[in-house]
Amino acid sequence: MESPMKQGCLRAFAMLLTCVASSALAADPSHGEAVVKRWCAGCHLVEPGQRSSTEAPPFSAIAKRPDFDASKVAFFLLEPHPKMPNMQLTRTEAADIAAYIATLK
Ligand code: HEC
Questions:
Q1: Measured in angstroms, how far is the CA atom of residue 105 from the centroid of ligand 1?
Q2: For a Cys staple, 98 with which of 6, 49, 73, 82, CB 3.0–4.6 Å?
Q3: What does UniProt give as the signal peptide span (predicted)?
Q4: Are 29 and 100 in contact, with CB atoms under 8 Å apart?
Q5: Residue nearest to atom 30 of ligand 1 (CA)
Q6: What is the DSSP string of 31-87?
Q7: What's this model's pTM, rounded to 2 decimal places?
Q8: Are the C-beta atoms of 6 and 75 separated by less than 8 Å?
Q9: What pLDDT, on a 0 to 100 scale, did the predictor assign at position 24?
């Protein structure tokens, strides 16, 4: 278990990193992939061969849409979505996930 104090410090550090990262670095698709496998694979098809039992669109289908736009996906992920649990993603996570989905085109 981590102490609340340590968590608060980590959170502040993560926010600082977000500021630095969003101005200097591109999003990290490999981190997005890790997040997606943990949080989204229960409903969305993430990898080929995986079975999906819900109506959630596979990420590769989202990436192939003609109007696909990584920044729109990132924005969508930060909004609560009726059929998806409110996952409280950080802006960095949302950007990394959108960057990962963009690689599936
Ligand atoms: C509990 C099941 C569930 C989980 C978990 C889930 N989703 Fe979804 N998601 C859905 C369903 C169902 C839809 C389509 C229905 C709709 O559009 O309302 C959807 C739609 C989407 C869309 C497409 C929106 C559009 O433009 O059509 C995106 C992008 C998306 N999800 C991303 C994610 C990501 C990223 C995660 C993990 C961080 C995630 N979802 C986790 C069920 C889920």
A1: 17
A2: 73
A3: 1-26
A4: yes
A5: 77
A6: HHHHHHHHHTTTTS--STT----SSPPPHHHHHHSTT--HHHHHHHHHS--TTS---
A7: 0.76
A8: no
A9: 41
Query: CA-based angle 79:85:91, to the nearest 5?
Result: 40
The CATH code of the domain at 27-102 is 1.10.760.10
What is the tens place of the pLDDT at every residue in 15-69?
A: 655 655 554 457 999 999 999 998 888 888 887 777 766 778 899 899 999 999 9
| Tokens found for residue 56 | 């959630």
Tell me the best of 43, 62, 72, 78 to mutate to test the pocket of ligand 1, counting ligand atoms within 8 Å of each CB and taking the most. Answer: 43
Residues with CB under 6 A from ligand 1: 36, 39-40, 42-44, 54-57, 62, 73, 76-77, 83-85, 87, 97
